[in-house]
Write a structure and sequence with these properties.
The protein is mainly alpha-helical. The protein is built from 13 helices and five strands. The strands form two sheets. The chain has a three-stranded antiparallel sheet. The two termini are 29 Å apart.
Length: 259
């Protein structure tokens, strides 16, 4: 994790994920051009149909902060241009977003996941504000590092992000959805995590699955289901786990007809 990734960004939470706007931007992305050329062209031509130049400027600022489009996050662009439907692409976006946003990552994989596992059904902004007080105190040394209005806006923003990624539903009072990660997204994440971990057990037990409210035993169950349908090879013998994925690496999966 670099220094940028460890910052607590209230702005990213308040701005939201821009799911459809980002998808549309990546649809118009020219892979043969540099990242800076793409940003310049989009800013000048408004090829994504932004409602105003001010909105477009702020959106592009968030995009630059949220992704490393010269590195692994470029795969998000390739997935769009390979024809992935928005609903399959959405979970991949959440995973990539969380890599550079510590506040979002810890909120979902720790606080929200724990509430989900505890069987809590309804969540409002108040307990999220309390959670944020603790996070800011631990990271920035004092609760006063943020204004109280900022806490409220960030809390509402984080809950709204959970709704936009279909983990929750509702307006003021948020309720957990019965979420299921799509097969296409699941296999993409398997390739990405195997690339990072190089170990089947570490992949199965990765905290990344908590972004989608999945426990390790639920990951194993999905692996066994996909094994039965011939989508991958997975065996469990006691504590030993063996996983063979459809493609050699994530890049091959992204560009393969398998997807």
């Amino acid at each position: 994790m670099n220094a940028k990734d460890s910052e607590l960004s209230s702005n990213l939470a308040i701005r939201g994920p821009f799911i459809e706007e980002t998808y549309r931007t990546f649809s118009n992305w020219e892979l043969k051009e540099s990242t800076s050329q793409n940003f310049k062209r989009i800013a000048e031509t408004n090829s994504i149909g932004a409602s105003s130049q001010s909105w477009l400027t702020k959106f592009l600022q968030v995009l630059k902060r949220r992704y490393d489009l010269t590195g692994p996050d470029k795969r998000l662009i390739e997935l769009v241009q390979q024809g992935w439907h928005l609903e399959d692409w959405r979970p991949a976006q959440l995973w990539h977003m969380s890599r550079h946003d510590e506040l979002l990552r810890t909120f979902i994989t720790e606080w929200l996941f724990e509430k989900h596992q505890a069987g809590i059904v309804i969540i409002t902004a108040d307990p999220v504000v309390e959670y944020l007080h603790g996070v800011v105190r631990a990271k920035l040394g004092s609760v006063d590092a943020w204004k109280e209005n900022t806490y409220r806006r960030v809390a509402n923003g984080l809950l709204k992000i959970a709704v936009e990624f279909h983990l929750m539903r509702g307006r003021t009072n948020k309720e957990f959805e019965s979420y299921r990660l799509s097969e296409r997204s699941f296999i993409y994440l398997l390739h990405s995590l195997m690339e990072r971990e190089q170990n089947t057990r570490k992949v199965v037990e990765a905290k990344d699955w908590r972004l989608f409210m999945m426990k390790s035993n639920e990951v194993e169950e999905e692996l066994l289901r996909l094994h039965q349908y011939g989508r991958l090879h997975f065996e469990r013998a006691g504590s030993l786990l063996e996983l063979t994925l459809p493609c050699e690496d994530t890049n091959e999966y992204v560009r393969s007809a398998v997807v």
